[in-house]
Amino acid sequence: MARGSLEAFARKELTRDDHVIVEATGNAAAVAEVLAPHVDRVVIANPKQVRMIAPAKIKTDAIDAAVLAKLYSTGFLPEVWETPHFGRSPTIDSIVFCGLEAGELMKRRCPIGSGPLAMPT
Fold first, then answer.
1. Burial 57-96 (b: 16+ CB within 10 A, else e)
2. For the chain, what are the domain ranges?
3. Does this model's pTM top 0.85?
4. 59-109 pLDDT per residue, tens
5. Cβ neighbours of 113 (radius 10 Å)
6. Residue 49: in which H helix or E strand, if any?
7. Are 4 and 27 in contact (CB under 8 A)?
8. What is the C-alpha separation between 105 and 97, in angstroms, rounded?
9. Concatenated DSSP letters of 20-39
10. What three-state secondary structure class fits 18?
């Protein structure tokens, strides 16, 4: 879908109260960027973790959408981490990185200059 068509859809069909879930694909960030000004929240779902939680024997767009909506509404939707942009500034509690809650990241942090999570100095 072309960017202009997606923007036209967002203006016509979406409201500021809507929450939109997008499966992580190569263009998910671009889609989220277009939709974000028109809705309350855009969530990018981690498809590998969704499949682990809710495996489906039959896959259709309607079934996938229902599964994503149910997981999101119950707080079990695994999200991918995204940089804070699109005019939002999430709190550390709302950031999820590769399926790890922010608190889990804090437990795994390393001093600067050592370990896999170290920041370059």
1. eeeeeeebeebbeebbeeeebbbbebeeebeeeeeeeebb
2. 3-90, 91-121
3. no
4. 888 888 888 999 999 999 988 876 555 544 444 334 444 444 445 545 555
5. 9
6. helix 47-53
7. no
8. 8
9. EEEE--TTHHHHHHHHGGGS
10. coil
